[in-house]
Design goal:
TPR-like_helical_dom_sf, Pentatricopeptide repeat-containing protein, repeat, single chain, mainly alpha, RNA binding, PPR_At4g14850-like_plant, 946 residues
Length: 946
């Protein structure tokens, strides 16, 4: 330390405290105490000679401040330098000052010092550019470079390295290529390997990996940084195979990897799921002793095993490596989360905390997600409290959103709302999470209220917010609100960049029953995908507009879009509704050819349902038998199919097979099997199912099951048990009352049925058409036609419109009571006055009406006027009447039609044999009794009607 500095200190031109620091930093020992007396004049004779040494001392001291990021001490040094007048044209000292302030993060002061410089060289500009780079201000760094260029200061290799780094950060490959050309033309690449490495990094960051590798290959000298940069570039873009290939080239080049190289390679193994290579790299880093030197490498090992799904190995490695910190645990927690092992993730978190390690915000968010998924509100609340104590929410908005999401997933929407209102800062993400939570719970109105409040706070919604709000509009069927959101989305031009939002718009209009507008949105979308078409197709199918659904499906194919499982499922449903087995079979072939049935259980279930709806129950069973995976939906669909076709025994067999395969029935399965018990009148099985349902507590939460139980007991004729079950139901709705009324009516207890109707009316329940039909049908079955007609008049008086079943019951009542004129009047009025189109049941009842009155020719004319003469029930009714009245001629005609429609119908042969017997034609009668036995083997005979 020069004596001159001590002299300056005595004169008060520098502080003694700062002088002591200079001495300590430079020489490693403090200065001797200064003399209290003055300093003789000769002590200053070499002052100018010593200024250079003093400047060097200041430079070293300023660099020490920069390394320690001690801007306060650096500022004091600056004051002392000014006091000593050392700056002048000393560019080196100026540059060191700029660099010190820049490295300490005080860029305003760095710029101020820079602007005061009388002379600036490349190093001066570099100091400022590096400072802006360190602060992440790429634009300012670029502005500095351009100003430097404008002032005619030639950039050096450091400048180029910095500005190429800026280009990489800004993903500005065009400017980067321009600087590449400049560097190349100046021959700097051959002299400075650092520039080549920076070029590789720039191209890699810009996504031009081929160019980056080309630069690597062109370098005359390639060091470990060159290779590591290229490998890291491949890894950052998810190209693990290329990264590992590059590593092999590096080894062939004789270059030894370092900890940074291995860190990237371990990530590459995680990307490629290359366990073998990962284990090999693990051995290498252990043998080279690199783990003891690099905490980052230790964590990369744990992260690799976690990504490979080798969580036991990751856990084992965590406790073997020399460094274990919060990051190590975070990687392991993320691995468990990825595998869906949420409880183990929470266990890791508790272990981590027991080591007094605190996670970062992203790990807290991860653990909160786990709490939400497993609905562990208690742990979630505890973590929330910890986050509050650490005051992390003030600096991390993402964490606030994660807390809101946790409460929502734990079904604590009120807590989520309360917490959101307490957040110091609420952003679009936190609001969107809450809105989405309400939507997921089907609470559309609350979601829309949140959206309005969010807007009132001046928060601008994003595409995710709009998507949730559109779902809320769909839930609430507020199409006008949906149109308002639609308008905003169009104004903000979001549809041009976000196809999901376009699909959400289609879905909203579909849910609001505005299919025309949904189609209009789809046509106007700049880009349409499979989801766009599937959403509209599903909408048409749900509204029963199957022809439109088929048309959309064809247009989708003409757009060169491949249907997905959802699309096929919707179109198969349309085939079932339309009872179009040919189209359904064609789709089945197409789906099977693509191997989609094996991948999507939804499609297997949809195929079973389609065949069931088309009446091809045997084919549905074949599809079910061929499925690799059969879930409760598969079995329930098949059971429901058997029930719909009146095949109760087959439904019960299917149920037993389902249970034998270990598939647990759900409420839908139980409802179907109770109907099967009713069809087969299997009261023992019905009681067994009743006991199972009661044991599982399903009756408390499922009204449909209660109604099915009442109906089952009614169908089995056990009205006492039906009434008892009805009385214990937590909710007695119109359907349960109807089942009971139908039971009493069918058992001939019309008075009790009517009393039920009055009780129902007194309870304020609206009587529907089924209720009235049950009463009319019950009285009709008892032969009380007059009472049935009275009930019909009361039904009209109450304002209930009759349906097709009502008229079947009325005509049937008239038929059994011989009221031919009244029955004919009901048949005519159903079309003229009530707009009900007659179906085969109505025509069959009319045939029966005339046939019972021995007016067989009128009955025959009814059949001839039917839309189709292929209604076997009508011919069977006529044949039965011919047997009663002994009409051979019409009997022969009816028989021929009946057996043409069903050649194996033994009843037709019996009826014809009896007609012959009644007409004293014993030989013919005997012949038909023989044919009755052989009807299932031989061709039926066609009789002459003469």
């Amino acid at each position: 330390m020069p004596d001159l500095l001590q002299v300056f200190a005595l004169r008060g031109r520098v502080s003694k405290h700062v002088l002591w620091i200079y001495s300590f930093w430079i020489s490693g020992r403090p200065l001797k105490p200064l003399k209290a007396n003055g300093v003789e004049g000769e002590d200053f004779q070499d002052e100018n000679a010593n200024c250079k040494e003093l400047s060097i001392s200041f430079v070293l001291s300023l660099k020490a401040c920069a390394n320690r990021k001690d801007v306060r001490e650096g500022s004091r040094l600056h004051d002392d330098i000014d006091a000593l007048g050392l700056l002048g044209k000393n560019v080196h000292l100026w540059n060191t000052l700029v660099s010190m302030y820049a490295k300490c993060g005080d860029l305003n002061k760095a710029r101020q010092v820079f602007d005061e410089m009388l002379v600036r060289n490349a190093v001066s500009w570099n100091a400022l550019i590096v400072g802006y780079l360190q602060q992440g201000d790429s634009e300012a760094a670029l502005d500095c470079f351009e100003q430097m260029y404008y002032e005619g200061v030639p950039p050096d290799e450091v400048t180029y390295a910095c500005i190429l780094k800026v280009c990489g950060l800004m993903r500005d490959s065009i400017r980067g290529e321009k600087f590449h050309d400049e560097v190349k033309s100046q021959g700097l690449l051959d002299k400075h390997v650092m520039l080549g490495n920076t070029l590789i990094d720039m191209y890699a960051k810009c996504g031009f990996l081929a160019k980056a590798h080309a630069v690597l290959n062109e370098l005359h000298v390639r060091d470990v940084v060159s290779w590591s940069t290229m490998i890291a570039g491949y890894v950052d873009h998810g190209k693990g195979e290329q990264a590992l290939s590059c590593f092999r080239q590096m080894q062939e080049d004789g270059c030894t990897p370092n900890a940074i190289t291995y860190t990237s390679l371990l990530k590459a193994c995680g990307i490629t799921h290359d366990v073998h290579m990962g284990l090999k790299l693990h051995d290498e880093v252990v043998n080279q002793g690199l783990l003891e030197k690099s905490r980052v490498l230790c964590n990369a090992l744990i992260d690799m095993y976690a990504k490979l799904g080798a969580l036991s190995k990751a856990h084992e490695t965590l406790f073997e490596v020399p460094f274990r910190d919060a990051v190590s645990w975070s990687f392991l927690i993320a691995g468990y989360m990825q595998q869906g092992r949420f409880k183990e993730a929470l266990s890791c978190f508790h272990q981590m905390r027991s080591e007094e390690l605190f996670p970062d915000a992203s790990t807290y968010a991860c653990i909160l997600k786990a709490c939400g998924i497993i609905q562990d509100a208690r742990t979630g609340k505890s973590i929330h409290d910890e986050i509050l104590r650490r005051k992390l929410l003030e600096q991390n908005l993402m964490l606030g959103s994660a807390v809101v999401d946790m409460y929502i997933k734990c079904d604590l929407l009120a807590e989520a709302q309360k917490y959101l209102s307490e957040l110091p800062v609420r952003d679009v993400v936190s609001w969107s999470v809450l809105i989405s939570g309400y939507v997921q719970e089907g609470m559309g109105k609350e979601a829309l209220k949140c959206f309005d409040k969010m807007q009132s706070e001046g928060i601008i919604p994003n595409a995710i917010t709009y998507a949730s709000v559109l779902k809320a509009c769909g839930i609430t069927r507020l199409v006008e609100k949906g149109k308002e959101i639609h308008k905003k989305i169009v104004e903000e031009k979001l549809l041009e960049v976000d196809i999901v939002l376009g699909n959400s718009l289609i879905d909203m209009y579909v849910k609001c029953d505005d299919l025309a507008e949904a189609k209009h949105v789809l046509i106007d979308l700049p880009v349409r995908d499979t989801v766009s078409w599937s959403t509209l197709i599903t909408g048409y199918v749900e509204k029963g507009q199957c022809i439109e659904a088929f048309n959309c499906f064809q247009k989708m194919l003409s757009d060169d879009l491949s249907p997905d499982a959802v699309t096929y499922a919707s179109v198969l449903k349309a085939c079932g509704i339309m009872q179009d087995p040919d189209r359904g079979k064609s789709l089945h072939v197409e789906i099977s050819a693509q191997g989609l049935v094996e991948k999507h259980i939804l499609l297997g279930n949809s195929l079973v349902d389609m065949y069931v709806k088309c009446g091809i129950v045997n084919r549905a069973q074949e599809v079910l038998d061929g499925l690799h995976i059969r879930d409760v939906v598969s079995w329930s669909t098949m059971i429901a199919g058997y029930v719909e076709h009146g095949k109760g025994e087959e439904a019960l067999c299917c149920f037993e097979q389902m249970q034998s395969e270990g598939v647990s029935p759900n409420s839908i399965t139980y409802a179907c099997i109770l109907k099967a018990c009713g069809i087969t009148r299997n009261i023992l099985k019905g009681k067994q199912i009743h006991a199972e349902i009661a044991k599982q507590g399903l009756l408390k939460q499922n009204v449909v099951l209660g109604n099915c139980l009442v109906d089952m007991y009614v169908k089995c004729g056990v009205l006492t048990k039906a009434q008892e079950t009805f009385d214990t139901l937590p909710v007695q709705d119109v359907i349960s009352w109807n089942a009971l009324i139908a039971g009493y009516a069918q058992e001939g207890q019309g008075d009790r049925a009517f009393r039920c109707l009055e009780q129902m009316h007194n309870k304020g329940l609206s009587l529907n058409v089924f209720t009235w039909n049950s009463l009319i049908g019950g009285y009709a079955q008892e032969g009380h036609a007059v009472k049935a007609l009275d009930i019909f008049q009361q039904m009209e008086h109450e304002g209930t419109s009759p349906d097709a079943v009502t008229f079947v019951c009325l005509i049937n009542a008239c038929s059994h009571s011989g009221l031919v004129d009244e029955g004919q009047m009901f048949f005519e009025s159903m079309v003229k006055e009530y707009g009900v189109t007659p179906n085969k049941e109505h025509f069959t009842c009319m045939v029966d009406l005339f046939a019972r009155a021995e007016d067989l020719y009128k009955a025959l004319r009814v059949i001839e006027q039917m839309p189709s003469t292929e209604y076997s029930s009508a011919w069977s009714a006529l044949l039965g009447a011919c047997r009663k009245w002994g009409n051979v001629k019409i009997g022969r005609l009816a028989f021929n039609h009946a057996i043409q429609l069903n050649g194996c119908d033994a009843a037709s042969y019996v009826s014809m044999a009896n007609i012959y017997a009644t007409s004293d034609m014993q030989e013919e009668s005997q012949k038909f009794r023989i044919l009755r036995v052989e009807s299932a083997i031989f061709e039926y005979p066609v009789l002459s009607s003469e």
